[in-house]
Amino acid sequence: MTWRPRRASRICTLVTAALVFDASRLDANFRAVAAAARAHGVTALFAAKSFPHPVVRALAARHLDGFDAASVGEIRELVAHDDPGRILSIVDPTAQASHCDLLARWHGRLVVGVETVDQVAAVPARAEIAIRTSASFGDRDPAVGAILDGTGRRRSRFGLDVDLATRREQVRAIRAAASGRPVGIHLHHGLVVATTAERFIASIRDALGAFDDVEPAFIDLGGAWHGIGLDGLDAAFAAIREAVPAHVEIVVEPGRLIASGAGAARGRVVGRDAGATAVGRVEMEAVDVVGVVVGRVARGAGGAGGSVGRVVTASLPPSTARMA
Description:
Number of strands: 17
Largest sheet: 8 strands, parallel, barrel
Shape: globular
Number of domains: 2
Order of helices and strands: EEEHEHEHEEHEEEHEHEHEEEEHE
Radius of gyration: 22 Å
CATH topology of the largest domain: TIM Barrel
């Protein structure tokens, strides 16, 4: 199928297709997350990689407590709009972004994820330490596409993901290297998408087992909240807050959840290939302003009718359509 951009607006770059997002719906989603978090004493950060667009980043800064970043490029964009009242959490498996000079320009609270004592020594001295642990160290969730652990089961390649005794030794060593700085936990769920709070609570209990009798300063549960959804967020936060001691900060990093119900495909069918049962040529058109979603698709040549909308929507891979 051939995609040809017809008209590019000031908010959309039409490469091979266009996804259009409703800014008012995104704003409402951010507000819903913020309200649920405040109601239960939860710190909410926006996963910057999930929607790298200035409008979305501004909404996140307006409503949430800060950002989660995982690359030098993301850090560069965020420090350019530094807010001393915001949090920047770096979760960096490559150990490159968390050591970059750009972090010196962030004047708000700084949290850096680590897995080794050497990484603790390399991060900025003022940074709080988040020990990366994987949800796959439990018996419930083998990591998809990761590495075999010798039992026929797969586990994550990121985070402390070894037997409990060794994990406790690693936690003690990292806490000692932190030299009194706040030390917490960052849970890496990978491809596991929770649909209830119980899934998060079980992971918390597994992770706390490596801290002996010393409670972490915070527990960052990461993302993967779209399985619970906006409607279930308040109840989930309430259940998690009840399961964790009140003095332990709970941090979440919604990303995909923010776009729930806010996006639509925009296209106009101009014809189809001879003998084809589906649309063969689509001419793309973008809306003119942020905040408007147009989902109507014109009837294609040959009377493709109601099936056209489904074909167009299915043919819009997010990797080739973005807001710019």
